[in-house]
Amino acid sequence: MADGPAVLGYYTLSAHSIERSALPEDLVKKLKLPKYPLIPATLMGRLAVDLKYQGQRIGEILLMDGLERSYVHSSQVASFAVVVDAKESAVEFYRRYGFLRLPPGLRMFIPMETMKKLMGSPPL
Ligand SMILES: CC(C)(COP(=O)(O)OP(=O)(O)OC[C@H]1O[C@@H](n2cnc3c(N)ncnc32)[C@H](O)[C@@H]1OP(=O)(O)O)[C@@H](O)C(=O)NCCC(=O)NCCS
After folding, report:
1. Domain ranges of the chain
2. How far apart are alpha carbons 61 and 110 in whole angstroms?
3. What three-state secondary structure class fits 40?
4. Is 51 in the pocket of ligand 1 (CB under 6 A)?
5. 47 Cβ below 6 A of ligand 1
6. How far apart are alpha carbons 81 and 97 in whole angstroms?
7. What sections of the chain are H helices per DSSP?
8. Which residue has a Cα nearest atom 2 of ligand 1?
């Protein structure tokens, strides 16, 4: 995201996968995930806002933009969730938007099923 030559913030999206065995069994059942050892996901990386512009909802806009893109693309390239490797200081930021912890580390995820409810319709 830029304002003229100034970069306000950014994030990356890439195809990823999570070991099925790393996911809580109740979630695997609830989401009816396939029985493959690796489940496709979308990794959101490097989300950051320039220090000068933090606290102006740019992080929220970037996060929502990335979630929407991921959700739309999941209709064409399978992905069960958006995953982030959060810094300790950003865990609460992600949690407030519905991300869940994936123990034991700081990995967090938000299922596409949750986004379907938030967006109100399936991806086109
Ligand atoms: C985390 C980060 C992306 C947030 O961006 P931002 O533009 O400053 O945040 P926003 O203004 O969009 O904040 C939206 C809401 O989240 C809250 N929030 C922001 N950063 C937070 C944090 N680290 N922990 C908890 N809540 C946070 C804000 O208080 C605001 O809450 P409100 O709705 O009650 O007003 C930014 O602080 C940043 O770049 N941090 C350094 C890099 C980083 O930690 N990136 C995360 C990668 S793991």
Report:
1. 2-119
2. 16
3. strand
4. no
5. yes
6. 14
7. 25-30, 58-73, 91-95, 112-119
8. 59
Closest CA relative to residue 71, chosen from 19, 122, 108: 122
Which two three-digit tokens encode residue 23? 């996911």
Confidence of residue 77 (pLDDT cuts 50, 70, 90): very high
Write the residue with the smallest CA distance to atom 18 of ligand 1.
93
User: pLDDT for 5-60, tens place per residue?
Assistant: 899 999 999 999 999 999 989 989 998 998 899 999 999 999 999 999 999 999 99
> Ligand 1 centroid vs 22 CA: distance in angstroms?
27
Name the residue at shortest CA distance from atom 41 of ligand 1: 48
What CATH code would you report for 2-119?
3.40.630.30
Question: Is the full-model pTM beyond 0.70?
Answer: yes
C-alpha to C-alpha distance for 35 and 91, rounded to whole angstroms: 29
